[in-house]
Amino acid sequence: GSSWNNCDFETNLCKVFPEFNLQTGWIRRNGKSGLGPPYSDHNGNESAYFLSLSSEMQSSSAALRTNVFLPTDEEHLCQIRFHYWLSQMSGTFMVGFQKHSEDTVTNIWQVSGELRNQWNVNTITINSTEKYEVIFSGMVETQRQGETVAIDDITFSEGC
């Protein structure tokens, strides 16, 4: 609904991700970029933008970290809906969250390369008694052509 904060990466302005274009390893592009799959966003639009792992990077993983969210309450849990794309060989995509009082990221959800070269959608729910950040992580085990992880259209409910 209209109350969800949506980040579709069509512009560089996503309030929930401070300066996401500076987060190493992710590249904002569209299907016409010449960088291999995916060749469109999750709606099948070749010109629409999404984030994917940059094949040029030295390390094979990248994280995308949100602003700090306030604690959730019983009426307003934080729901996050997102579209993701995995290459068939070695892609892994994870969502985690980190409480303010902790150094470690707690893994909430993860998927690996058995889903072959197509956009999928998922919704996760977060319940936290303290301030927290959400981290989206992509990994590929090989730098072969066409091996990537991509993310598009992340929406955050008002409980986030």
From TrEMBL:
**Any single Gene Ontology cellular-component annotation:** membrane
Q: Which organism is it from?
A: Sylvia borin
Protein name (record)? MALR1 protein
Q: Where is the MAM domain?
A: 5-160
Record's InterPro entries? ConA-like_dom_sf, MAM_dom, MAM_domain-containing
Q: Which domain of life is it from?
A: Eukaryota
